[in-house]
Amino acid sequence: MNGLSPDLQTPCLVVDEARMAANITRMNTRIAELGVGLRPHLKTAKSIDIARRMLPDPGGPATVSTLREAEVFAAAGVRDILYAVGIAPAKLHRVQSLRAAGCDLAVVLDSVEQARAVAAASASAPIPALIEIDCDGKRAGLAPDAPQLPEIGRILHESRAELRGVMTHAGGSYDVSGTDAHAAFAERERLAVVTAAERLRRAGLPCPVVSVGSTPTALAARDLTGVTEVRAGVYVFFDLVMAGIGVCAVEDIALSVATTVIGHHHDQGWIMVDAGWMALSRERGTASHAVDQGHGLVCDSTGRVIPHLIVTAANQEHGILALRAGATGPLSDMLVGTVLRILPNHACATAAQFDACHVVPAEAGAAPVIWPRFGGW
Amino acid sequence: MNGLSPDLQTPCLVVDEARMAANITRMNTRIAELGVGLRPHLKTAKSIDIARRMLPDPGGPATVSTLREAEVFAAAGVRDILYAVGIAPAKLHRVQSLRAAGCDLAVVLDSVEQARAVAAASASAPIPALIEIDCDGKRAGLAPDAPQLPEIGRILHESRAELRGVMTHAGGSYDVSGTDAHAAFAERERLAVVTAAERLRRAGLPCPVVSVGSTPTALAARDLTGVTEVRAGVYVFFDLVMAGIGVCAVEDIALSVATTVIGHHHDQGWIMVDAGWMALSRERGTASHAVDQGHGLVCDSTGRVIPHLIVTAANQEHGILALRAGATGPLSDMLVGTVLRILPNHACATAAQFDACHVVPAEAGAAPVIWPRFGGW
Known about the structure:
Two copies of one chain form a homodimer.
Chain A: E1 12-16, H1 17-34, E2 37-40, H2 48-54, E3 62-64, H3 67-75, E4 80-83, H4 92-100, E5 104-109, H5 112-121, E6 128-132, H6 149-157, E7 162-167, H7 179-202, E8 209-212, H8 215-220, E9 229-232, H9 240-244, E10 255-265, E11 270-273, H10 277-280, E12 297-299, E13 305-314, E14 319-323, E15 339-343, H11 347-351, E16 356-360, E17 369-372
Parallel strand pairs in A: 1-16, 2-9, 3-4, 4-5, 5-6, 6-7, 7-8, 8-9
Antiparallel strand pairs in A: 1-10, 10-11, 10-15, 11-14, 12-13, 12-15, 13-14, 16-17
């Protein structure tokens, strides 16, 4: 009994409910210990069923990466959402529609032009905005000491818009390994937003929300003085990148792609499966790690890791499994038709290739269920 | 006038209808000159509207990479389909359902086990199968001189199944550049399947279909004696990988992702846009090329290439645009809100991230239209 439906059509996305529940509990416990709020990022899950398990309350708070996510989760009853990607002015009418329908949706920006656009769009009803702060030079955001910070704050505060606070994300935490390194990035996040918040307050501006977060920093942070909330998302499933940088164990990964053996190249030691990059995604986030997991690490149909068997190459609908360089092992039992599971490098990217999750229930003997997923913008 | 709807929400997928039509005409003309049949591969398009423009006849023939594609296109009237990924026995009931509904769906296999499974599933009604031949050691298939080839043929022919022929795909043609190199791969494809077909015929077995194809080999082949049909798909859009190996010009690429500028990192020379890897895919197929196009080459909103501006980094929903190393140029006019288009490394991977195509009509002044796309298995 592997918990999978016997008539499963592969490739398909599999969620191990027990592992997912443990991952959610771990994050909730850690954030409670830190004494701040948790605003789960729903970009990894993109599922109402999973969001309900992640959110502190059915109404939120939540973080999203697209307005489509905001629209779907708002329709499902989430009432407090942060859209955490810099706002494009042409999207503000959708923000206003969601707000008019009762969802407290806030936007993010880091420029005078965006602040002016939000101020203009707030003429009919106020739009709350957080100013994005750059803590590690990896992506968007203003430096905490950027000269235009108070000006942006004033444009928002002195118009009908609402200056709600500051936020940052240490994407750089994914590039380092170990709790100490992640704790150092957590402190960079904290220092960046606390510095920015203090500058705004010294300029006589409000800054009620001070928001940080990434899964590695959320779990490693030691002190979040001055921070009001933490955002994180990939912890719900974890993945091989998170395992590779020491944030979780491989055995914590709750997401996999079920696949079927469709052939062999015996002379090359290859096993062909029906999950290629269309199912696994092209994500190769472990390529730079000490242990390169190829396009994914292979498990049997029950989710038990098969040591040293990885996806070494991926075509659109073909995956090629082979032992890691130098490894040996008996693979002769993998006949055509054998079902395997592949752990993903990056849960967000792999999950995005599927419109449903096949759930292995936490309760032994419970019937498998399917949770719909969505994508788009 | 850029042909895009003024209320477009980015990121979204854009198809230039005139370029697409020219690409289709180019392939049709070339295959007609070679005197063989064309069985367009619909895995790149995944759109009924585009399939109608690619197919020789509304009924087919067509190639697909998933049974979902077979089901969608069969429901839209395509009656002759090859499912060109090695069959998993657990999928044969879906093959039988489609065949019972009037679609002549054929499967592909390369092992005795699969042949036995197809033979067993043919007890109620015959399933036609092609034997996959390996011409370049890149993926699935039997060597043309594999000892088990006649046995597999006999299992199919002597059961209620149907031995329909042989097929191969030179994935290796993507790794070489220039017409001569692609013509050499076309000859490898031809020689592999013609050799296998002759072995089957010498063993007293039928082999009516002898199928080859990839976009580079289809366009470069000089002689296809013994071949009955060519399969190709990515030619409908082309992409930066195809341009990089000399199969098309950058100006032929009919697919792009429309995106909006959402910010800047002026000190780093970065322009932030709202198309990250979720929109562009993680595909980096030009990384090994003479000209590395990063995560995509940037055009203005009309589709005109902006020299040396590429997507140098991609987060989930953020793309970072910057000039190629060493290049200089004025980028100061790209204010927040500017719409750009990004040409993809690999059309199949990028298109798969979207559920619709926004079409720039070939006819000047015609209203933009939307063609739905689908995914899944």
